[in-house]
Amino acid sequence: MWSASGATEGPSKYSMSVSMYRGGARGFGRPRTAPPDLPSLLLDARICYLGMPIVPAVTELIVAQLMWLDYDNPSKPLYLYINSSGTQNEKNETVGSETEAYAIADTIAYCKSKVYTVNCGMAYGQAAMLLSLGAKGFRALQPNASTKLYLPKVNKSSGAVIDMWIKAKELDANTDYYIELVAKGTGKPKEEIAKDIQRPKYFQSEEAIAYGLADKIITPQDTAFEKRNYDELLAQSKAMRSRAAAGLQAGASGAR
Predict the structure, then answer these.
(1) What is the pLDDT of residues 18-31, one digit of tens each?
(2) Of the listed ranges 10-14, 129-133, 156-160, 215-219, the one predicted with least confidence
(3) Rounded (5°) CA angle 187-197-118
(4) Looking at 14-77, which runs of residues are DSSP E strands?
């Protein structure tokens, strides 16, 4: 996988794509090329991992992964693992736009594949909304995961009155859409949700299930993803390279 951080100097603060191996050690039976990076291995198992605040680079990667997996095999479910503080960071500072999360939500609704969601740490704000929009019956939490709903907000702004008025209208629209999507996921009336989240509302796992944000606590017995036989895949790759090399050798001999 690639990320926008490659276009700038130094690693991005919010880059979800980290190459785990660069070259690797050469040894008996090891391939001569570097193994895939971790996000690619997860993608091979139809897993998308949202593991940081929802900023544009993260949205670009998640939406692209969802679209590819849906195109690759729309008959199989895909998995969205969430460990995100939403559009705010650990200091409650806004670092992303709510529209980024809405782009992911719209992509989930667009996919023909069922999207199974898992809160594997925390799902706050817009991330909690994404958790609730997974396929009903397949929205899971880990036993010690935490979930929190909070209202969208914008960074402190100044300037002309008209600019501040436009910001206020944008905030109202984002709040209405956020409440609408949480209501869709939980099945609760919008009025009840609007009242509940006037202040940040925190849930432990059982409380999140009772509120309708998730369906179950995940256990080791649950099938997390379709396992691949990587030894078999490696053997097939070696066989294909051997056939290709033999074909080139035969072509070179014929040319003589």
Answers:
(1) 333 333 444 445 45
(2) 10-14
(3) 55
(4) 47-50
Burial string for 123-134 (b: 16+ CB within 10 Å, else e) reads: bbbbbbbbbbbb
Q: What is the CA radius of gyration of the chain?
A: 22
The CATH number of domain 36-229, selected from 3.90.226.10, 3.40.50.11240, 1.10.1670.10, 3.10.20.30: 3.90.226.10
**Composition of the chain by helix, strand, coil, percent to 5:** 45, 15, 40
Alpha-carbon distances, residue 175 vs 24, 36, 242 (angstroms): 48, 40, 58
DSSP code of 94?
Answer: B
How crowded is residue 189: how many other Cβ atoms within 10 Å of its Cβ? Answer: 11
DSSP annotation of 182: H
Q: Which pLDDT value is given to residue 256?
A: 61
How far are the Cα atoms of 104, 124, 243 from residue 248, in angstroms, in the given order? 46, 56, 9
β-strand pairing of 78-84 with 115-124 = parallel
